[in-house]
Amino acid sequence: MIHAAINGKLNGKLNCLQSEDALTAAVFGRLRYLLPSVLGEWLATARNHTDPRATWVPRASEMDVEFWPTVKDALHGRGSVQPDVAIRFDDEVVIVEAKLWSPKSAIEDGLDQLARQWHGTTEHYGERVTVTALVYLTSHLEPPRADLDASAHALGANASVLWWLSWSTLAPILERQVASTDRVSRLVAEDLLQYLREVGVLCFRGWRLAFDWQRGPCWRYQPSRRALYARYWHDYSRNEPTWSYLR
Fold first, then answer.
1. Closest listed residue to residue 121, CA positions, set 176, 66, 166
2. Which of left, alpha, beta for 76 (phi over 0: left; psi -120 to 50: alpha)?
3. Do residues 168 and 201 make contact, with C-beta atoms less than 8 angstroms apart?
4. What is the pLDDT of residue 238?
5. How are beta strands 92-98 and 130-138 bridged, if at all?
6. 122: nearest Cα among 134, 131, 113, 114
């Protein structure tokens, strides 16, 4: 699917380069083929919303990834909710709600999406396992504080479980996997890096000269389409500038 999306074969009714569901499935689906430490290293870049000094504790056990589990909407009292990913480590579960360019969704009475997912999953898993963290995964380069503040308020005494994670922090970890001697790890990392680049969730991390830089410029600048989710640009920019690398 990744290569079909990158090469424009799936950009009809469903543009996989603008779909948060496609991005979630591609990333977490392929991270299962890498060592658990790769996911652990990425999660370690998450920030706790209520305690900036808190650090993510890596899990040593193997992980089991469940996509879009349907659980009862315990906060609303009817219907169901679907967090994007439930990551299970032995006797604990980490819930991930992933966004690309869209904000949180809400039902008619305005109940917070993340709070609904938290109450639903804790009731769903009950005493079998403990839901220890609720991760809000977005494309922002800095925490979207308005969204996080609203969720923390709705979570009340449970606000300490709320973490924020950026898609952009995954790329440096994958780059180290590209240098791996294991062929599978290298190929998985290369595919994911290319996909993240095409989706547009990589951040600028400095200039690097190409070997053939004398032959001509390696970078070009072009303003692209209006940002789909303007708050991503912190409300002061309505245009999405793009630097692209020319091979």
1. 66
2. alpha
3. yes
4. 41
5. parallel
6. 131
Measured distance CA(99)–CA(84) in Å, rounded: 9
Q: How far is CA 52 from CA 39, 138, 196, in A?
A: 21, 18, 27
User: In CATH, what class is 2-170?
Assistant: alpha beta
pLDDT in tens, 202-223: 875 555 544 444 455 555 555 4
At 104, the amino acid letter reads K
List, in sequence order, every residue forming a beta bridge with 239; answer none if it has no partner.
Answer: 226
- pLDDT category of residue 18 using cuts at 50, 70 and 90: confident
CA distance 232 to 45: 19
Query: Which is nearest to 158 in space by CA: 126, 131, 124, 128?
Result: 131
From-to residues of CATH 3.40.1350 in the chain: 2-170
Q: Which pLDDT tens digit goes with each residue over 141-192? A: 899 999 999 999 999 999 999 999 999 999 999 998 888 778 888 999 999 9
Q: Is 162 within 8 Å of 155 (Cβ atoms)?
A: yes
Q: Residue 240 in contact with residue 223, Cβ under 8 Å?
A: yes
